[in-house]
Write a structure and sequence with these properties.
The complex is a heterodimer.
Chain A: E1 2-11, E2 17-27, E3 31-35, H1 42-49, E4 57-62, E5 65-66, H2 72-76, E6 79-82, H3 95-105, H4 110-123, H5 139-151, E7 157-161, H6 169-182, E8 187-191, H7 195-199, E9 206-211, E10 214-220, H8 221-224, H9 228-233, H10 240-250, H11 262-272
Chain B: H1 2-6, H2 16-19, H3 22-39, H4 43-51, H5 53-59, H6 63-72, H7 74-92, H8 97-123, H9 126-135, H10 140-169, H11 179-184, H12 187-210, H13 228-250, H14 257-267
The chains are: A alpha/beta, B mainly alpha.
Chain lengths: 278, 268
């Protein structure tokens, strides 16, 4: 059981080739981060997962079902896609209704809806906003409502499009720990170009680098994000930790450079300097 | 629906039509509307009015988009035809070929409106248009409103698509169901769209006031001046108008549907 993309091409009606032969497999419970420059096709790619975009050529299978054979609403039951901008979707009179919206669409019974909404309000620290309009919330809170309104139906594959956009550092930390908690029960796919956010993620994700509608590299975060050549090719900002290590190395300090974690780097530097101890 | 909106969005190209004074093109759209709306009412001349715009759209190098606008307006045309046929048929339970032709003429008249206005907006930049209105003495804030409305139509169309996608991703079924249930399902799309439009208008107003909007009398870097080709175009249009009025008064147009029907009858 997995999301499988077989040589997927997508051409927008205006002739732009957004995807040019992408093959990809997202396993159950897996953590995948899709990175790449603006216009690389990242958002287009994740929209093929729940059938919002049907490939011009190639096939997308969700647990064996071709996305062409099912409606978006049917596929959404398994693939929960959270859009970049919450302003594009919040519309209900209360936060509670907003979170219950999808559950009602999917035909959950009212008891179950109440139970799940209570859980989601609590999980996202939104209890005090239950009865106010989602439109009156701050940007970060809106983003949490949008996320809660998808997570509440427990999709097997959770897809987040730029979840860190416009979030302050504390919000990002909360998001990071939330994603860590979700993993295991479900697969999480995240689209972002926030390199530092990904560099600090635990567990470490599999990275898919996308550029010009093609997968240009794929592999473990420790390998991809510490490789300056790959990072530059995807026009991302190099993460700080391996950059500092590389700099030390060029100054003659014998350190490894394939490290992303700050504390890990500290230990490596200390032992290289012979200071040792922790 | 969004195809119709795109059909009115300005296309930056280089053609004789693009270089014409925006006021001349405005007059063109008006004259076409007067001709289709007041002077002619029968199918044959209205069809001619529609067809003479084909070479014009090609001249403006916007032929494809122009055709798309027309195609996109077919649902509206069908509604016009359907409702009118029903209204005529209902009281007497009978329809003649003349009635059908009359109804078709109404639809073609609407198509002429859409297509002439489309040629005008496809080849005139919102800036030029606003400039034209300004120099015709329309207050600047109205011109700006007009320009902003045109400028933001494609943005709104794009946002509508994104919102539709976002709600479908939350299980909103837009692909199935009857007309009425479908209409009700558009609330989750309309609310964010309207709220965003208002928010954006507010933010834009603040940003503009921060940059001294309305501080005093505005001057303009570009001043529209009619050139030889503009006068020539005006002359041609005036001539066409006079000819049209003359034709209207002197010629009585035949009905074409009964003619075709009897021709077919004679054949078989």
């Amino acid at each position: 059981m997995a999301i499988e993309l077989h040589d997927v091409w997508y051409v927008y009606p205006n002739g732009v080739e957004a995807l040019r032969g992408v093959s990809l497999r997202i396993e159950e419970g897996e953590f995948v981060v899709i990175m790449g420059p603006n216009g690389a096709g990242k958002t287009t790619l994740v929209k093929t997962f729940n059938g919002l975009i049907k490939p011009t050529k190639g096939r997308v299978l969700v647990d064996g079902v071709d996305t062409r054979q099912a409606t978006v609403a049917e596929l959404a039951r398994k693939v929960g896609l959270v859009f970049q901008n919450p302003d594009h979707q919040l519309f209900c009179e209360t936060v509670e209704d907003e979170i219950a919206f999808a559950l009602r669409n999917f035909g959950f019974d009212e008891n179950e809806i109440k139970r799940r909404v209570d859980w989601a309000l609590k999980a996202f620290g939104l209890e005090e906003y239950r009865d106010i309009s989602p439109l009156a919330l701050s940007g970060g809170e809106k983003k949490r409502v949008a996320l809660a309104s998808v997570l509440v139906w427990e999709p097997k594959y959770l897809v987040l499009d730029e979840p860190t956009l416009g979030q302050d550092y504390a919000q990002k930390e909360r998001l990071r720990s939330l994603i860590s908690r979700l993993l295991g029960e479900r697969a999480v796919v995240m689209v972002t170009h926030d390199v530092e956010f990904v560099a600090d993620m635990r567990p470490r994700p599999r990275i898919v680098l996308l550029a010009g509608g093609r997968v240009i590299a794929e592999g473990r975060a420790e390998d991809i994000l510490t490789d300056p050549e790959q990072i530059d090719k995807a026009r991302l900002v190099r993460p700080q930790v391996p950059e500092v290590l590389r700099n030390l190395r060029s100054l003659g300090v014998p350190v490894r450079t394939d490290v992303l974690g700050l504390l890990e780097a500290r230990d490596i530097i200390l032992s290289a300097l012979g200071v040792g101890g922790r | 629906m969004s195809a119709i909106l795109e059909g009115f969005a300005f296309q930056k190209r280089d053609s004789i039509l693009h270089r014409l004074d925006p006021r001349v093109k405005m007059v063109y759209a008006l004259i076409m509307m007067v001709m289709a709306g007041f002077i002619f009412s029968q199918l044959l001349p209205l069809l001619v009015l529609l067809l003479v715009q084909v070479p014009l759209a090609l001249l403006g190098r916007v032929g494809r988009l122009w055709a798309r606008t027309l195609r996109a307006s077919t649902p509206l045309l069908l509604i016009i035809v359907g409702l009118n046929l029903l209204a005529i048929w209902w009281p007497t339970r009978s329809l003649s070929l003349y009635d059908v032709e009359h109804v078709l003429a109404l639809a073609v008249r609407f198509a002429v409106f859409v297509s002439s206005f489309s040629i005008f907006t496809l080849t005139t930049s919102p800036d030029d248009l606003s400039l034209a209105l300004e120099q015709m003495g329309v207050p600047y804030s109205f011109c700006f409103m007009f320009r902003a409305a045109l400028r933001f139509t494609p943005v709104m169309a794009r946002e509508a698509r994104i919102t539709m996608d976002a709600q479908r991703a939350r299980g909103l079924e837009l692909d199935k169901g009857g007309l009425l249930t479908r209409a009700r399902r558009y609330i989750p799309i309309l609310v964010p769209l309207i709220v965003n439009a208002i928010t954006r208008a507010w933010a834009m107003a603040e940003a503009m006031e921060s940059r001294a909007w309305g501080a005093g009398k505005r001057t303009s870097l570009y001043v529209l001046r009619m050139k030889g080709r503009d006068y020539l175009a005006l002359l041609i249009m005036l001539y066409a108008m006079v000819v049209a009025i003359y034709v209207r008064m002197m010629v009585s147009f035949p009905y074409i549907l009964p003619f075709i029907a009897s021709a077919l009858e004679a054949l078989f």
